Amino acid sequence: MSTDTSSFVDQLLRHAEAVEGCLEGLLGPDVQSGEIGRPPRLIAAMRHGALGGGKRLRPFLTAAAARLFGIAGEAPLRAGAAIELVHCYSLVHDDLPAMDDDDLRRGRPTVHKAFDEATAILAGDALLTLAFEVMAAPQTHPDPAIRGELTLGLARAAGLGGMVGGQMLDLAAEGRYGETGVLAQDDIRTLQAMKTGALLTFAAEAGAIVAGADATDRARLVAYGKALGAAFQIADDMLDREADAQAMGKAVGKDAAAGKGTLVDALGIDGARRECARLVSEAEAALAPFGAKAQTLCDAAHFTVARRN
Amino acid sequence: MSTDTSSFVDQLLRHAEAVEGCLEGLLGPDVQSGEIGRPPRLIAAMRHGALGGGKRLRPFLTAAAARLFGIAGEAPLRAGAAIELVHCYSLVHDDLPAMDDDDLRRGRPTVHKAFDEATAILAGDALLTLAFEVMAAPQTHPDPAIRGELTLGLARAAGLGGMVGGQMLDLAAEGRYGETGVLAQDDIRTLQAMKTGALLTFAAEAGAIVAGADATDRARLVAYGKALGAAFQIADDMLDREADAQAMGKAVGKDAAAGKGTLVDALGIDGARRECARLVSEAEAALAPFGAKAQTLCDAAHFTVARRN
């Protein structure tokens, strides 16, 4: 399938605005009432960590997956926003001095730099908790069984066997805990499937869940999300190698400096490009049964490996 | 109502064992498989933070509240365990160097002392996430609407308007962010209702939710929980004043050193004792419609203010 990149990017940007509006509502004026019960410093830090940036790729995947089944509107938007809140919390915590110690994120100071460490820890905790509050709320879907599946899936993608576990493995791969700094290729794939793949995969699956899709169709979205997630991470590693600091808006070359192995090290730049192309084809193949309706999601897979930041 | 303290403590200890067993199952051998997908260091840190200590008062309240409506077994036990996981996560994060900087908790090294700061941040994140996974799982209750209410209530008690918000206010009350160190009595009450009250209140309410109780009975448990939570915190502040480090198993007198006002400062020791007694009566009054069935919960309120650690 071919990709009309500019019209895809338009779609992505338009949806990112809708996500921003949803997040603004969740972290907005009525929350910022300034009473003692709503600590303004914490809310400001949550807003710093969650608003005003990012492609909002995960919520886009949720919305595009739901549209495969003819579902649009508030339900996929809120489910996607909840997933984005988990993504944002993980960035806030991963940037902390005790973790990756990053000063910049999307060209702006990280939350612990703009505020302080304690505030950043609490803002991350609050964003994570808010994600579950949003997902479990009746406004997200009238059917409590569907809200329950969304909540459970989000918790699994975020927890021990997903993002948190992946970040722990990533720290260990730096040799912090006495282990060697170089992982086998399979271990790199497992680590990345957890750290970044689990939430991207769930973002795609969540669209099917919101739409009440059957198990077969859910499995198709999961297969698509897994391939897209793996391609995303390799593309990220290539960007980390190639891009200059300005284009990324964050410190680059850190993985290399930390001595961590990536698939780009293991496969070489050309091999990594081929692996990306293979994964994009795999993502497209998973959606073949949906035919032309899946074009947007296929475009998203192409975009993921072609993006420059 | 009178209190048979020793038989109440027996009940509390017996239930704490059941909670320990449940948490052990959630963080146990099949989770600790040692594959790369289940980072053993993270699991060890989660176990350190969640197992082997504590009165498990919150799960006890959930179980005792459910028994008011004739409900016992797995549902209230799992709901209580999920609440306890949130309590444990909050201790792990509050102890961090950037927050309260505590080296000891229940007489043992805190998680960041036994492991390291990054691991403690991640273990807290993982315990919080696991709490939602447990609450949302079908094993907790067959009715998805009830699981949904439990999940939503837990998120509200834990988040911005609950524990996280309360901890932020507590840090601000230390004068970290340029504000004055002394709070008005009403502000102390608000802070404590959020920081410790919200989860204790929800623990009691969760028992009613699990049992499918109506709104009137839920409101009674909420009123009970609010009074008990307020009494709990004043008792804690009195212990902080009086107890020696050995009996508490943690550093004492820290609140005084940090210059934070507590209700004990505002009311004096005698006034604080009277306030505790008033709150216990208020807790009992809220449950009066249940008659003798509420004895265990009334005992719990008395225990809360009489405990020595």
TrEMBL record, chains A, B:
SUPFAM superfamilies (alphabetical): Terpenoid synthases (SSF48576)
Pfam families associated with the record: polyprenyl_synt (PF00348)
PROSITE patterns: POLYPRENYL_SYNTHASE_1, POLYPRENYL_SYNTHASE_2
Superkingdom of the source species: Bacteria
GO cellular component, one term: cytoplasm
Cofactor(s) needed: Mg(2+)
InterPro entries on file: Isoprenoid_synthase_dom_sf, Polyprenyl_synt, Polyprenyl_synt_CS, Prenyl_diphosphate_synthase
A molecular function (GO) term: metal ion binding
Any one of the GO BP annotations: terpenoid biosynthetic process
Keywords per UniProt: Isoprene biosynthesis, Magnesium, Metal-binding, Transferase
PANTHER family, A to Z: FARNESYL DIPHOSPHATE SYNTHASE
Family according to the record: Belongs to the FPP/GGPP synthase family.
Protein name, as recorded: Probable farnesyl diphosphate synthase
